Amino acid sequence: VLTSLTTSMTWAGHPSSPPVVDTSQGKVLGKHVSVEGFAQPVAVFLGIPFARPPLGSLRFAPPQPAEPWNFVKNTTSYPPMCSQDAAGGQVLSDLFTNRKESIPLTFSEDCLYLNIYTPVDLRKKNRLPVMVWIHGGGLMVGGASTYSGLVLSAHENVVVVTIQYRLGIWGYFSTGDEHSRGNWGLLDQVAALRWVQENIANFGGNPGSVTIFGESAGGISVSILVLSPLAKNLFHRAISESGVALITALVKKDMKDAAQQIAFLCWV
């Protein structure tokens, strides 16, 4: 879906200054990128935090709103991917990426960021449809930055958002009780969609026309979000590609037993 074409960073028609946008946390600085065959460049914002880093007491806990800042945050470089098996993450990225440029992959628990691609002149009051991409990877590997929304944004005249969410044990560890309820990765997705509702208008998007779409584990996530009351009114259309919530492997009945096995393996 996110098909790539040759891009260039040196189009003479770029606005004289890089884009700066207000968000509910503070201002963010992006960059203009041109796409071959299109006069209007795409404004790109990479690594906007939509939640606080899930570290310390926030590990294995619901995401919390990002802390505000009082400066212009530079959002022109790819954020780290969520913690995962590095080799598996590299293989998936090499297999599925549609970026022309090669970027070094980095991994961190501090990973709750999103990227935005908008084709509009941000000096005008445009309101374009919004498409939010949820990456695949078996809920174990992957990241938003594997997929560039640049060409989709330019070709279809839509605002594209790619989001990240906690993976593996960091995203789905559960004891089956109040101590660690689990599904943190899905709650991250809900938090990202809530951020989009609050802020996307400032990026030229229409918060009343949001489509979520994803492939494999991303498609599964889309299917779950369609069913979840937590995501009500956060999106309006959904595209689930090769994944649904009915897959039995997603469900564990005895989470406490699984948690004890993990604790044993970790020598806890």
TrEMBL record:
EC number of this enzyme: 3.1.1.-
Keyword NAD applies: no
Keywords associated with the record: Hydrolase
Cross-referenced Pfam families: COesterase
Annotated ranges, domain Carboxylesterase type B: 18-263
InterPro entries named among the record's database cross-references: AB_hydrolase_fold, CarbesteraseB, Carboxylesterase_B_AS, Carboxylesterase_B_CS, Type-B_Carboxylest/Lipase
Keyword presence, Glycoprotein: no
Any one Gene Ontology molecular-function term assigned to this protein's record: hydrolase activity
Family from the record: Belongs to the type-B carboxylesterase/lipase family.
Name this polypeptide is given: Carboxylic ester hydrolase
Naturally occurring in which organism (per UniProt): Clytia hemisphaerica
Classification of source organism: Eukaryota, Metazoa, Cnidaria, Hydrozoa, Hydroidolina
